[in-house]
Amino acid sequence: MSDLMKKEDKLVIGGHSFDSRFILGSGKYSLDLIQAAVEHAGAQIITLALRRANQGGMANILDYIPEGVTLLPNTSGARNADEAVRIARLSREVGCGDFVKIEIMRDSKYLLPDNAETIKATEILAKEGFVVMPYMYPDLNVARDLQNAGAATIMPLAAPIGSNKGLCTREFIQILIDEIDLPIIVDAGIGAPSQACEAMEMGAAAVMANTAIATAGDIVAMADSFKLAIKAGRQAYLSGLGRVMEKGASASSPLTGFLQ
Amino acid sequence: MEIMVNGEKVSCQEGISVEEFVVQRGHDIRQIAVEWNEKIISKESYRNTVLKEGDVVEIVTFMGGGC
């Protein structure tokens, strides 16, 4: 085993460290599959949504999430910064920690994030001590503003939420990875383990996925597949990918000693 | 008396506390947050917060969600 493979490699978010680089969403599952999906994904962070509890006595998702997993409530449903702040504060009041993933959408067709409102909400919540993980459209200037506003990570979208289309914004995510000194976590649109692996090879700190797994034929096996792909991509990134030649070829076999 | 709970009119007994009300509805206090007249109240204050006619209450919890 090489020294690199023996080295400890932690993901650090807002002073908390994690061994896993796979953030799992919990939407669109039946509750009895959540636990197995989390375990097979090896996920240590799972996202949740906050909604009205109209009836008591029903099964609650919190009963199905393994102990020790960090809960990352999102602010889905928020259309502006004020609504996101309200949801974040309520989420913290449930009593599951200080993490929050800001999601602010004005558009219900494409579910694209409102970057300007996201910066506003990040600033307010970071000052209140939240570990703020904003979902955003990949834009370098916005990422810098989010960093200055106190974001703990930046979560650029790969493609529209739930689309499984993969790394449509690849070039712009690469700019964030190269320029922003925060963990860049690729969020939304990742549809296959190969895409998650590619994001990790690019230098993403982690990948978030939900729909790709929830809509797979075998949810638990797909969660495991993502785990392996993310691990492979991370190790490949740390190993330093081989160079790409613009033109021509380079023989890998000796060019001497041919049979006559 | 009547109060608004999660956007719906609900009848409840006079003098009931937030704690009694949410427990009667079957909620596990560890899994909810409550907003009372647009103010988030801590779990510790559920017991001493008495509901009155026309109060607006939001009771929220976590559900599956991701991307």
Would you write up a description of this structure?
Chain A is α/β, with parallel strands linked by helices. In chain A, 37% of the residues lie in helices and 16% in strands. In chain A, the strands form three sheets. A five-stranded parallel β-sheet of chain A has the order 5-4-3-10-9. A three-stranded parallel β-sheet of chain A has the order 6-7-8. Chain A has a two-stranded antiparallel ribbon with strand order 1-2. In chain A, helix 3 crosses helix 4 (115-127) and helix 7 (193-202) packs parallel to helix 9. Chain A is globular, with a radius of gyration of 20 Å. Chain B has one domain (2-61): Ubiquitin-like (UB roll) (Roll), CATH 3.10.20.30. Chain B has one helix spanning 18-24; strands spanning 2-5, 8-11, 32-36, 39-41, 56-64. The mean pLDDT of chain B is 93. Chain B is globular. Chain B is built from one helix and five strands, in the order ββαβββ. By secondary structure, chain B is mainly beta. Chain A binds chain B through residues 24-29, 31, 34, 47-58, 60-62, 71, 73-74, 76, 89-91, 93-96, 135, 161-162, 187-189, 208-211, 214, and chain B through 6-8, 22, 25-28, 30-35, 40, 42-43, 58-67.
